[in-house]
Amino acid sequence: MANTVQFELVSPERLLVSKPAEMIVVPGAEGDFGVLPGHAPMISTVRPGIIGIYRDGKIDERIFVAGGFAEVMPDRCTVLADEAISLAGIDRAAAEARVRAAKEAVDAAVREEDIRAAKQRLAGAELLLKAVEGTSGH
Q: How many structural domains comprise the chain?
């Protein structure tokens, strides 16, 4: 059995990541799950959160995803993300702007389904800000 899993992260626009990893931690709908070589096949929804890509025994890259689906096979993990942002590519000011915009969308929403969707975007934006704050200085 190989000691890596091929990880692919796809957004609606393009393939964002395609590389081998020792382990991938995905924010699944029912909790985070780790994918190692030889993992049992499965499909899961992905909640807003941080994907951790492990190489050389530590986190090599952290990527915020706004939701989506994950397909796991023994040798591969593919995440189809609604939106994905590398934490290395976003700063605190940009994350704060996302939170402000999401709060404005919640305040402006009238219909129940729009309120629910805006609150979900706000929760994701707040999670992104918290993750960016947690990586500053590292």
A: 2
